[in-house]
Amino acid sequence: MSLEGLVLVLDVGPSTHALLPEIEKVCSMLVQKKVWVYKKTSEEKFPSLKKYSDKAPLTDKFATHEIKVDYEYKSIEDPNRVVPPEQRIKGYRYGPQVVPISSAEWEAVKFKPEKGVKLLGFTGASNIMRQYYMRDVNIFIAEPGNTKAILAVSALARAMKDMNKVAIIRCVWRQGQANVVVGVLTPNVSEKDNIPDSFYFNVLPFAEDVREFQFPSFSNLPPSMQPNEQQQQAADKLVQMLDLAPSGKEEALQPNLTPNPVLERYYRSLELKSKDPDAAIPPLDETLRKITEPDAELFIKTEL
């Protein structure tokens, strides 16, 4: 498929154009394992702490010290009677009412889409606001060594880049998965010959996910509540002097070089406790202090 053909389809957006099925073949490669998906950015969660019991004898080598939790459901009319599982049913609050739904009904109501990736269409990159990005970021790359897949992904990515377009796709990652995501594919054109072109994938919100807060324009406020020229210049100067990426210097707090201070402090304390259970929690490390507190040098320069 030629680049000109790709440009035609990208130009018209969603349509019944004859070449649209050819474009969809690129997305269908995801299911055929011709395009691989990796996590590009994912939030590192705080480790979950489990309950521990020291009731087991120290001589018991097979003791797990794990605590198991059991729940009992009792009747309101008879608090001493335990309600067995077959007599329990889930209820969902709908306004002032509680609607009972059995397990069979819930299974019938569940949306069970087929696994796959569906191209919905294209739109201008400016139509996708930064605040629309949700969850983690994935990267779509062609299967290494698969020349056809590499060429197809590269042709589509470069055509979209040239026209400043992004693709809107519908994804179901696993068969029978209850939820469907709609996301945006942003072309990532490589500047190196040994690194193939790819796409960044971001999940987009549905209507229920968007919070539309309407705030009045600052320019609509009375003059007495707006900054004068001197105040505006002072604010501009403050921003310039506290710039984390000043000219001629390395940028501070780069994400790929800045560890999570909460996780770092937790693991350092955990290491200390593993060596000495009675050890006191140490003060904040100087390295972490630089992350969590303003740079003193910047403020000194600002005062000057």
UniProtKB/TrEMBL annotation:
Name of protein: ATP-dependent DNA helicase 2 subunit KU80
Gene3D superfamilies: 1.10.1600.10, 2.40.290.10
Pfam (any one): Ku_C
SMART domains referenced in this protein's UniProt entry, alphabetically: Ku78
Species this protein is from: Sesamum angolense
Gene Ontology biological process: DNA recombination; double-strand break repair via nonhomologous end joining; telomere maintenance
Assigned keywords, A-Z: ATP-binding, DNA damage, DNA recombination, DNA repair, DNA-binding, Helicase, Hydrolase, Nucleotide-binding, Nucleus
Family: Belongs to the ku80 family.
GO molecular function: ATP binding; damaged DNA binding; DNA helicase activity; double-stranded DNA binding; hydrolase activity; telomeric DNA binding
Cellular localization per UniProt: Nucleus
GO CC terms: Ku70:Ku80 complex
Tree of life domain: Eukaryota
InterPro entries: DNA_bd_Ku70/Ku80, Ku80, Ku_C, SPOC-like_C_dom_sf
Domain Ku: residue ranges: 80-221
